[in-house]
Amino acid sequence: MMRRLACATMAAALVFGLAGAAWAQALRLGILPVLDTLPLHVAAQEGLFAAQGLDVELVPFASAMERDTAMQSGQLDGYFGDLVATLALIRAGVPMRVATVSYRTTPGQRMFAVVASPKGAAPGAPLGFSRTTVMEFLLGRMAPGDAAGGQAFTRMEVKKIPIRMQMLMAGQLGYAILPEPLATLVQSHGGQVLATDEALDVPLTVICLREDKMGRRAAFLAAYARAVEALAERPEDFRALMAEKCQMPGPLAAGFPVYRYPAPSLPSPEELDQVQDWMLSVGLLDEALPYALVVPEH
Description:
alpha/beta; 5-stranded mixed beta sheet
């Protein structure tokens, strides 16, 4: 009897110990409903995080501001975001590091584009954008004026992307910088694409972890790398997931390409300098951050 009790006690301790270990590996990641996050959803759906002993919860946010607030207040263990927001948060004292680049501008796969209104755009018509964001950073490098006969654009800030697209479609804006798949949606209604980010060769978005969670980076990246491979090997298997999680407009769900994503990597010092130089020029940073403060310690 005592032997059976001892065995049962050991078995229970083992079960609870394993459960505790799994709980200890839980990670809450703040994300946005955008194309760049598809590998994260694939890793979650396919059990790739669980296979690495991680319990990853993808926490969706409607806006980058809400996500950033949650990261600053300690409600998240990590997040998906662009490099501009990431550097600003680190400068503000949020103890986090870049775990990997999640998307890099790629020929044949535009992520942002400057699009003309389907209703036409008179000379001097405003171009809608959002100030002090990665879109403004890209706008300065896309040279949309080259495709519009050297035209100089009057910029008008329209912070919320859905409103910016509505104004463009209604002709209240002559032009706008939009992310995919919205740029393709406007193009399908007759809007002309003037410039894209495809040839810029810059890391756009990253996945970050808090410094006290960086010990799980290797396991996290092993799962993430397998998700990237699965998307490359059988992209159509994840079309429905893309449509659901990345807010794909209904008319585009069947035909929009399932993108390829880069294998895990870190931004180079030169790439960080490009972004930081621009942030310094617009007052988003008061001094450049050391590379070692942004990437994991080796």
